[in-house]
């Protein structure tokens, strides 16, 4: 693998994807209302937006079960804060009321006691978009908010690990058929680097989980898969450590590698399709693969290059590792 | 497929086992002791979840114990003799089948002891048919996965310790499926839901046996 | 009617992270610079390692 172009490509892709992943702003959204429950009557509500630019003639309305009512007064405190004075009508139909500011909707923003008959609809003016120019932005999802950027860093770790482990299995298969130890060296080198990416994936995932789900670890099918993968390849290293004869070591570890990889593929990609597993991972619930994440095209434009960059980088690291092992073995002779 | 060869090998396995009956005794004692320790630790099992979890954990370690010896029963010279006589694929099939049979027997006996000590109060309203099916399939699954792992560990010269390390992550997905299926059937859930897991388990067993069948000849060359 | 008497707890202020996003106060530039530097530094390190290995491989007797 002496051609240098793919190595430059690795760094270039990684650089642009990482910078873009951090720089591109999130799209504006309404994120907080206070208070978030009221009954009929007069109430003042504070609305907080994220990356919004509220202007003085923003149109605000509240929607409840198909009926609309408007705030009596809208005060724009600054680009991201509004204060609404509401006279809430008595006939509220449903329990949850949506808040619509310009073209931004906050579904279920308010809890209101439903059970009414409805009320005469009001016309609150046209929905002028909150921002004049449309920039390129990332989706702004509840729970995730800015941490959605982690998509470009955490998920490629797994793609890279899978690529490296696949490379390792391929070498194991070739190694069983041949007599040289070259394939064995490649197999273990790929596993070494792959395990590092597995560790990074677990750590970054734990941090992200703590921030969004509140806990470092949970009983989720993807996390179980990650744990099993780590255990399998650590066991692979233990197996190699217990056999001293190089030829035997190559053969035994190749057999374990192939067996384990096949079962792993079954577990990671097939089992989730057989039973409908629910999971905390966004968009998961029966599929695997990255269509999982309910990917938006705006995210994909940065995500695919990020994956490509990290995979190429991982392969480069494995290449360096394998060459180093080969050289040190030659030097030992 | 050489059915006659496999049949002969199976008879060999039975003969070896009969000669080492003490091993079975040891195994059962292991299970009883483990169940008793669990009983002392827990005293009364309130829910089906805990009952099920303890059952499978104990069975898992008993499986490691039972299967690690399957490739260490004949000494080196006799193994070489076996190698010249029988095709390695027959050997692995025969061993796997016999191990599966061993595991099923072990699982049912383990279930018996478990029920005796832990009581069956936690199991009101259980669907016994699906539960027994899940137990049997799980036992067979453990055998299919762990037979090849035992062969690898035996070749590496390290017995039960290495086998547990190598086998545990491979067996984990199987255990997850089997524990969920058995827990669901203990809760009395309908067959339609458990059926999915059962199908998955059967599928897994088939694939594992095929893999072992493919890979074993490389292991046997020594 | 009890919803009219708003419980004080419900009048929560917006969470602090909303007010302090790195994008909002321009500090994202520093983060991007740091990450960019790390990526380029990693690339440079690997490039040099690659060249070093290549030189050692060429010195080996075939």
Indicate the overall shape of chain C. Answer: rod-shaped
> Radius of gyration of chain C, rounded?
27 Å
Mean pLDDT of chain C: 75
Number of helical regions of chain C: 2
Largest sheet of chain A: 5 strands, mixed
* Class from helix and strand fractions of chain A: alpha+beta
Element order, helices and strands of chain C?
HH
* Number of separate strands of chain C: 0
Describe the structure.
- The complex is a heterotrimer of chains A (333), B (222) and C (62).
- Chain A has 333 residues and is α+β, with helices and mostly antiparallel strands.
- Chain A is 49% helix and 17% strand.
- Chain A contains six helices and nine strands, in the order αβββββββββααααα.
- In chain A, the strands form two sheets. A five-stranded mixed sheet of chain A has the order 2-9-8-4-5, with no helix packed on it. A four-stranded antiparallel sheet of chain A has the order 1-3-7-6, with no helix packed on it.
- Chain A is elongated and about 90 Å long.
- Helix content of chain B is 85%, strand content 0%.
- Chain B starts with a helix and ends with a helix.
- The relative contact order of chain B is 0.14.
- The mean pLDDT of chain B is 84.
- By secondary structure, chain C is mainly α.
- Chain C contains two helices and no strands.
- The longest helix of chain C has 32 residues, at 28-59.
- The radius of gyration of chain C is 27 Å and the shape is rod-shaped.
- Residues 1-10 of chain C have low confidence and may be disordered.
- The chains are: A alpha+beta (333), B mainly alpha (222), C mainly alpha (62).
- The interface between A and C is large, with 40 and 35 residues.
